[in-house]
Amino acid sequence: MKRSDAYKLGVESALEAAMYGTYLDAELADRESFVAAILEVCDNKRQYAGHPGYEFNQQKNGSDLWDAFERGELAGAKRSSLRMARKEAALMRAVHCGKG
Asked: Global pTM?
């Protein structure tokens, strides 16, 4: 497996965690907290069968794959938090403009 593939899997993992995870209000309060919560969900997902990490461990470049995967998870978590912030800003604009 290539590092770029592992990175993409990490991004997908974080986007999935952001979409399907259940988060507390405190975790949604700011982008940093949301990113941390997404990464915690990603960590928890590693214990399940079918996680790409099992394949990484079988590869010669397993350590590099894990590094790329984790960078991808961080990028995906940040992307998700940015999307959340943009949606929140759009909602606030709509409310202030009388559209909400």
From this structure: 0.82
- C-alpha 54/C-alpha 84 separation (Å) is 31
Contact residues for 68 (Cβ-Cβ < 8 A; gap 6+): 3, 4, 6, 7, 10
Is residue 67 within 8 Å of residue 7, measured between CB atoms?
no
Interhelix angle 62-96/3-20, nearest 10 degrees: 40
Contacts of 59 (CB under 8 A, 6+ apart): 1, 65
Burial class, 16, CB count within 10 angstroms (exposed 0-12 / middle 13-18 / buried 19+): middle
Tokens of 45: 């997902």
At 8-21, the pLDDT tens digits run 999 999 999 998 98
Q: How far is CA 1 from CA 38, 42, 60, in A?
A: 25, 20, 10
